[in-house]
Amino acid sequence: MDALFAPASPAFLADPYPAYAELRARGRVHYYEPSGQWLVPHHADVSALLRDRRLGRTYQHRFTHEEFGRTPPPSGHEPFHVLNDHGMLDLEPPDHPRIRRLVSKAFTPRTVERLRPYVEELAATLVRGLVAEGGGDLVGAVAEPLPVAVIAEMLGVPEADRGLLRPWSAAICGMYELNPSEETARRAVAASVEFTAYLRELIAARRKEPGDDLISGLIAAYEDGERLSEQEMISTCVLLLNAGHEATVNATANGWWALFRNPEQLAALRADPEGLPATAVEELMRYDTPLQLFERWVLDDIEIDGTVLPRGAEVALLFGSANRDEAVFADPDALDLSRPQNQNPHISFSAGIHYCIGAPLARLELAASLRQLLRQAPGLRPAADPVRKPNFVIRGLESLLVEV
């Protein structure tokens, strides 16, 4: 199993999909010793387990670390865990639905729709700059600055401070990889301390002078006598920033690299850039999934195909494998931008109570940058092979050099 599923191997990182196919062929659940996790590769199982309340993102709403058979994290990691554990992504009922309801009051479809002109104009400006230079790094020039600026605009982060956000986010997200090193933890803790202090000041300023931004909306959000605590607000802002741009950055870069390797699909898009089908964004999200793995704790024993996963076990739901499952997708290893919506039940935005609250915004950003690149750079082509990030869980490119 270790030779097949090898997330530290450059060859596996470059193309994990053949290994996933073999995992699916070998069975529905596999134990992976290096991370102590049960790998689940099939779409039906991943989809069902995302909705199964016998599993959870945390166990601390029901058990202590000791009761669950787990060692508490080192005390030196506390700033990261305080920040992470108060975000709704890592909470379960009753805290999760309470926070999600309050956040939803400030993160409405109307809020996202109001951002459309800003997103479209920013995408056009960024692509215009890339074209003026004759090309460059698609990640650094377009894929990264667009969603970072959009979520910063939503939160009300002053433009002068936005350069701080991406490094903090990258350091914190390093902890979501399998078996992060102590150096990764050190960087995540430092970023957590700095990011928390920054947001504490920003929240204090918005309490004094509310604005038309998400932080002001979170401060005002109120239901049944409850508000978000300051720590919940801070953790929510960090989650919205991290989740609000990581997926879009990586889906954009992964998507264009996929298009370059499938020229007939790219040609079909170029034939009608204004009529960009919604199916294109969904297919790019499916084909090379930006979040490859999502973890769950087993809160009560569960059986999968005759194998009992005991309480205290950790499950690794393989989104990337589920999105290539031949039992669900016709010709799953083919990029088909016209794949009908009702035949593309990808789970790139998760499912169940933890379904991505920012999915509509991510779709808006992906479509905007894709449309602008097709319109302004109809001859866009790779100038070199991409440099891949040395990550498995969050799959993306460090750089993708292009010419126009």
Which SSEs are present, and which pair or pack?
Blueprint: H1 10-14, H2 17-26, E1 30-32, E2 37-40, H3 43-50, E3 55-56, H4 78-85, H5 95-106, H6 109-114, H7 116-132, E4 135-137, H8 138-143, H9 145-155, H10 165-173, H11 182-208, H12 214-220, H13 230-260, H14 263-270, H15 278-287, E5 293-298, E6 302-304, E7 307-309, E8 314-318, H16 319-322, H17 359-376, E9 381-382, E10 387-388, E11 397-399, E12 401-403
Parallel strand pairs: 2-8
Antiparallel strand pairs: 1-2, 3-5, 4-12, 5-8, 6-7, 9-12, 10-11
Helix pairs in contact: 4-11, 4-13, 5-12, 7-17, 9-13, 10-11, 11-13, 13-17
Tell me briefly what this model is.
The chain is α+β, with helices and mostly antiparallel strands and 404 residues long. It contains 17 helices and twelve strands. The protein has a domain at 72-291 and 344-403: Cytochrome p450 (Orthogonal Bundle).
